[in-house]
Amino acid sequence: MSALGTDPVLLYDTTLRDGTQGEGISLSVEDKLSLLRLLDAFGIAYVEGGWPGSNPKDLEFFRRAKGMSLQRAKLAAFGSTRRPGIPCEEDSNLRALLAAETPVVTIFGKSWDLHVTHALRTSLEENLAMIRESVAFLAAHGREVIYDAEHFFDGYRRNPEYAWATLQAAREGGARWIVLCDTNGGTLPHEIEAMTREMVQRLDRPVGIHCHNDSGVAVANSLAAVRAGARQVQGTINGLGERTGNADLVVILPNLALKLGCRLEPEPRLERLQQLSRTVSELVNRPPDPFHPFVGESAFAHKGGIHVSAVRRHPETYEHIPPELVGNRRRVLVSELSGASNLLYKAREYGLDLDPDTPVVREVLRHVKELEHQGYHFEAGEASFELLLRRALGLVPTYFTLESFRLTVAQGGPDGSPVADAEATIRLRVGAERIHTAATGNGPVNALDHALRKALLPFYPAIGTFRLVDYKVRVLDGQAGTGARVRVLIETAAERARWGTVGVSTNIIEASWLALVDSMEYGLMKLGIQAPASEAVSTG
After folding, report:
1. Which band of pLDDT confidence, cut at 50, 70 and 90, is reported for residue 72?
2. How many CB atoms lie within 10 A of CB 14?
3. Is the pLDDT of residue 537 over 50?
């Protein structure tokens, strides 16, 4: 049993509304419907779909959501209290909330007297009536009403009597939940905990918490509120939201379930957490944050040899939870900081059983440290490292052997337009056959890629499924000017697989070629494709 009591904690997701207020964030109606299904399947109690009175997109979303059969989540429409001096029956916002036909309606009202007099430009008494009457109007139409007390903590600090009166008005109107909002995100955890505890003790309604991350403590504030008795936590997936974002449910959820021992209702499918986080990143067209707590690729990545040695024996020495609980996995990195433990761990990942005393282990470690000193970065090019290890063991077929390549770049069109046309001519051997071919591209690397594929496709048709999805170049020693060493990272994809390869040279073309060759050979190797019988096995 949790030390916080037996009452369940319910998660309230506002990604579809508050999350889309973040800069550069936009979701189509189809995106929102897709995410609603995903949140329902995951196990979120409430999903706030949007503000039906504010824009045509949300009107369309709620129209189409009416036909959905949600299994675990309740859909909420969001809006404000009635306008000053307007009866509830005539208020267009409240009518739109009812027309959305959601089982839950969340409305916000002003808790801070400064906002009442300066933003609403009405009297304190009229604001209380707006809250009370709006909640009562929606409740009388059979809606479960959640009242968001906007700017509550700022208002309570400055005028506690009036802020408390606004909560009383919502309670009198029949609000099912009263949610305390840190709308400006400026309150600290100890303040949140103290004020929330006081409201929990004084109210005869369950209390929720809604935090913004302007001070970088939205997650801590949300957890502090739960410790103080709040039983609904509002936030967004990945912390999306206005300004610096909302409280991140991806971080809050495992802390509640695994650290505070809270009973979550419904019980979420925690093992799908990483998948949920990444899907939302895809929907909003942002790359997943590798350093995201719990779900990022680096959240359970180990680099130092001493760490890896300890984790091999007892994972809890350097892992606060088993990564599988949140759908993540342990990663061991190989770099100049690596010891034999890193290498042996990676070998087991690749299905290789190495004797720690074998000379190959020492030789590969020496080679890795030397290459990293030159500028190689195997953390981002793990496929190149696996090839390096397998080549040292004589386990990589020689798919082709380069004899030479030549690049020609023509700059400027006949009319003086700034175009670049590159041609690559390549000579290589596949088995006993010699191939001489050429191809063009929009740059030298693109042309080289086309020429290599053109030469190899007749022998290895699978290469036609390989897609270069990312290409990065970094100058490693800028003080050397145009003679600087560069590192090229290539990410390749085929069906559901992705792999990264790396090349380093003072010649950007050579660095690109090294990474490109590794990307092709790794893909062929993982598919189990054999080289022509006349070719020997590469031993590096």
Report:
1. very high
2. 28
3. no
Nearest to 401 by CA among 459, 346, 362, 479: 459
Number of Cβ within a 10 Å radius of residue 351:
6
pLDDT score of 3: 47
410 has which bridge partners? Answer: 421
Structure tokens at 497: 């697989």
Single pTM value for the model: 0.72
C-alpha 47/C-alpha 84 separation (Å) is: 28
Give CA 495 to chain center in angstroms: 21
**Structure confidence at residue 256 as a pLDDT band (50, 70, 90):** very high
List phi, psi (to 5°) of 470: -155, 145
The stretch 221-229 carries a mean pLDDT of: 98
Q: Which of 139, 241, 130 is nearest to 182 (CA)?
A: 241
- List Cα–Cα distances, 517 to 3, 255, 262, 357, 466, in angstroms: 57, 44, 51, 31, 12
On whether the CB atoms of residues 163 and 110 are closer than 8 A, the answer is no
Look up residue 81 and give its DSSP letter: P
Of 51-55, 91-95, 376-380, least confident by mean pLDDT is 376-380
**One-letter identity of residue 253:** L
| Residue showing tokens 């793990």 | 382
- Give a three-class secondary structure readout of 182-237: ECCCCCCHHHHHHHHHHHHHHCCCCEEEEEECCCCCHHHHHHHHHHCCCCEEEEEH
Using alpha carbons, select from 338, 345, 343 the residue that is nearest to residue 361: 343
Q: Has residue 338 got a pLDDT over 70? A: no
- Measuring CA to CA, how many Å separate 161 from each of 205, 261, 442? 18, 35, 69
Coarse DSSP helix, strand, coil percentages of the chain, rounded to the nearest 5 percent: 45, 20, 35
Q: Which residue type occupies 471?
A: Y
Mean pLDDT of the chain: 88
Show the domains of the chain with their CATH numbers. Answer: 10-268 (3.20.20.70), 301-392 (no CATH), 400-459 (3.30.160)
Candidates 430, 423, 440, 303; CA nearest to 372 is: 303
List, as own/partner pairs, every contact residues 38-41 make where C-beta atoms lie below 8 angstroms and the sequence separation is at least 24, other chains included: 38/276, 38/279, 39/13, 39/15, 39/73, 39/237, 39/276, 40/70, 40/71, 40/72, 40/73, 41/71, 41/72, 41/269
Query: In angstroms, how far is the first alpha carbon of the chain from the final one?
Result: 58
Average pLDDT over residues 130-144: 97
Query: Count of CB atoms within 10 A of residue 374's CB?
Result: 11
Q: In Å, how far are 37, 68, 77, 96, 99 from 63, measured between CA atoms?
A: 15, 10, 12, 11, 9
CA distance 296 to 330: 11
- Contact predicate 328/295, CB 8 Å: yes
Give the tens place of pLDDT for each residue, 274-309.
Answer: 999 999 998 998 888 989 999 998 888 776 656 656
